[in-house]
Specification:
single chain, 627 residues, alpha+beta, Heat Shock Protein 90, Ribosomal Protein S5, domain 2, Rossmann fold, nine-stranded mixed sheet, five-stranded mixed sheet, 20 helices
Length: 627
């Protein structure tokens, strides 16, 4: 048998396209060829189960080998094999997919979806790294003759009688000069570990040495000897392919350690298993992240029938869950021909929604079944929950039952619980509920204490997502607003009908304002006099709640760039009823009045961490001189 011909393709430029554009990374060739080999073994097992293969098929396997001297890499299997006619059909006719035809023919079979390979373009990825590719194949069919196919990367091929004596296929790549880096045990092992680690058929790459028992020594202690065994690179039955009922906690933790050997144990996990209206399996882990908003992305691995595809899953997994770790496996996720990128598809949206629902259900279950344990995990999972509530309305509707608000006393409340707690004291004269919060309890301690004196509770909102979460709550909660504790003096945070009497005359008020304006002498600080409780601080420096929030969101890239470019402006609130103000008015020397006013202003800045550098040094020196 000898035949020469031309590969049936639509353009002679297919090889440059494959080599330069179709696959973004040359190492993909090994994934494609090993996947095709696994496909061949899966086909054989399926046909055998249907009684279409005579005799025992034995243990199926895939082997990868290389020869650095000959500059070759060989991928072999003992699967279904091919006849010469099938080689012409599946290899030469590039646009035809053997796997698709097989799945259509045996679509009634229970697990036809196990067929993962795509002979055709997947096979031709070999020419990214090889000058020549040889195929030796012997079909499982009774009386089949071995066939040999060779091609040098042009559109011409040669098909002749082969040399295989056992069923299967052997593909040999003659590596070109530019890709000799792949002729390395460590490089090939690295690629196999990345893409083939969980394939459903054993993949053998060379041999390895193991220790096995070898009797006992003279003292009765066990002895061991070194033996060489096949180096099987993959776990053919990873936990996401098993039923959750068959798994224990240690199984999930052991698998997590396999994936992320240097990570702390996860908080909990979710086992995904659905077969309608799409196929999806996997395990998603909640890691310990605290308030770290620097997303460690690419921690979720996407597989298609146990073949690793990518760790870029932003369209499948909701944005707010990109901090999760784990594995997703679905044959229904549409990929482009190189399997490198997701394509827009309704199944992707369905899977995204399904994952969102599963996460919400799991969190609700944890909260309901063991609230103390849930509260213990809250510092780690709060970021997920709040981000989800901000970004997905459907998630908000579920999460409002288990999101927690934490106050400065480190007590946790659901939204409904907190509303009941603060409504009596923190409802303003218009019937609007006001939640007060701090984003820096230490820096804003003076304001917190003033608020506490009035019977107000203060929430801690210091995660990176809280600016957006606060805005979301104001939109969702009825007649509720949130104010940072340092956005105004305590008496003005919540507008009530009662106001302390103003003890200064209009003339005295004007005089005090003039004294402070001159002492401060900064356009960014606007002085205002307020009738406050005499026990409150003499001077308080605040920034308008709206303006500060807009500037903070602009700093986070929240689309508020206009506000981010505006200069900071502060309000200097002078407590007209404080004894220090009266003392200032009693002074006959204008310089002394200015010193007292400046000292009070600097003390206010110091208490809020706003006094730094040369101004802080000047304040210290001035304070020493006043002693």
């Amino acid at each position: 048998m000898q035949e020469k011909g031309t590969i049936s393709i639509h353009t002679e430029n297919i090889f440059p396209i494959i080599k330069k554009f179709l696959y973004s990374d040359h190492e993909i060739f090994l994934r494609e060829l090993v996947s095709n080999a696994v496909d061949a073994t899966q086909k054989l097992k399926r046909l055998s189960s249907l009684g279409q293969v005579k005799g025992d098929i034995g243990d199926v396997r895939v082997e990868v080998a290389f020869d650095e001297t000959k500059k070759t890499i060989t991928i072999s299997d003992n699967g279904i094999g091919m006849t010469a006619d099938e080689i012409k059909k599946y290899i030469n006719q590039i646009a035809f997919s053997g796997a698709e035809e097989f799945m259509e023919k045996f679509k009634e079979a229970k697990d036809a979806n196990e067929i993962i390979g795509r002979f055709g373009l997947g096979f031709y990825s070999a020419f990214m790294v090889a000058d020549r590719v040889d195929i030796e194949s012997l079909s499982y069919q009774e009386g089949a003759e071995p066939a040999h196919w060779t091609c040098d990367g042009s559109t011409e091929f040669e098909l002749s009688e082969g040399s295989l004596t056992e069923r299967g296929t052997e593909i040999t790549l003659h590596i070109n000069k530019d890709n000799e880096e792949f002729l390395s045990k460590y490089k090939l092992q690295e690629i196999l570990d990345k893409y083939c680690r969980f394939l459903p058929v054993p993949v053998i790459f060379g041999i390895k040495t193991e220790e096995e028992p070898d009797g006992e020594d003279e003292e009765g202690k066990p002895k061991f000897k070194s033996v060489e065994v096949p180096n099987i690179v993959n776990d053919t039955n990873p936990i996401w392919t098993k039923s959750p009922n068959d798994l224990k906690e240690e199984d999930y933790l052991d698998f997590y350690k396999q994936l992320y050997p240097f990570s702390e144990d996860p908080l909990f996990w979710i086992h995904l298993n659905v077969d309608y209206p799409f196929n999806l399996t996997g395990v998603l882990y909640f890691p310990k992240v605290k308030n770290d908003f620097d997303f460690q992305r690419n921690k979720i691995k996407l597989f298609s029938r146990q073949v690793f595809i990518t760790d870029e899953v932003k369209d499948i997994v909701p944005e707010f869950l990109m901090l999760l770790h784990g594995v997703i496996d679905s044959p229904d996720i549409p990929l482009n021909v190189s399997r490198s990128f997701l394509q827009a598809d309704s199944n992707v949206k369905k899977i995204n929604s399904y994952i969102t629902k599963k996460v919400a259900d799991k969190l609700a279950e944890l909260f309901k079944n063991d609230r103390p344990a849930y509260e213990e995990k809250w510092p780690d999972i709060g970021l997920f929950v709040k981000y989800g509530m901000v970004s997905e309305d459907k998630f908000y509707d579920k999460a409002k039952e288990f999101v927690l608000l934490t106050n400065t006393e480190k007590k946790n409340f659901t939204l409904e619980e907190y509303k009941e707690k603060v409504a009596p004291a923190q409802t303003d004269k218009d019937g609007r509920l006001v939640y007060i919060y701090t984003n820096d309890p230490q820096k804003q301690d003076a304001f917190i204490q003033s608020a506490n004196k009035k019977g107000y509770d203060v929430l801690v909102m210091n995660s990176p997502i809280d600016n957006h979460f606060i805005s979301s709550l104001e939109q969702k909660l009825e007649k509720t607003s949130l104010k940072r504790v340092d956005s105004d003096v305590a008496d003005k945070l919540i507008k009530k009908d009662e106001n302390p009497a103003h003890i200064l005359t209009e003339e005295q008020s004007a005089q005090v304002k003039t004294i402070f304006d001159k002492a401060i002498n900064k356009p960014a600080y606007k002085v205002e006099l307020e009738s406050l409780n005499p026990d409150e601080l003499p001077v308080t420096v605040t920034m308008d709640e709206f303006m500060r929030r807009m500037k903070e969101m602009a700093a986070m890239g929240g689309g508020m760039g206009f506000y981010g470019n505006m200069p900071d402006n502060y309000k200097v609130i002078v407590n007209a009823n404080h004894k220090l103000v009266s003392k200032i008015l009693e002074q006959e020397n204008e310089e002394t009045q200015a010193q007292l006013a400046k000292q009070a202003f600097d003390l206010a800045l110091l208490s809020q961490g706003l006094l730094t550098g040369a101004e802080l040094t000047e304040f210290v020196n001035r304070s020493v001189n006043l002693i």
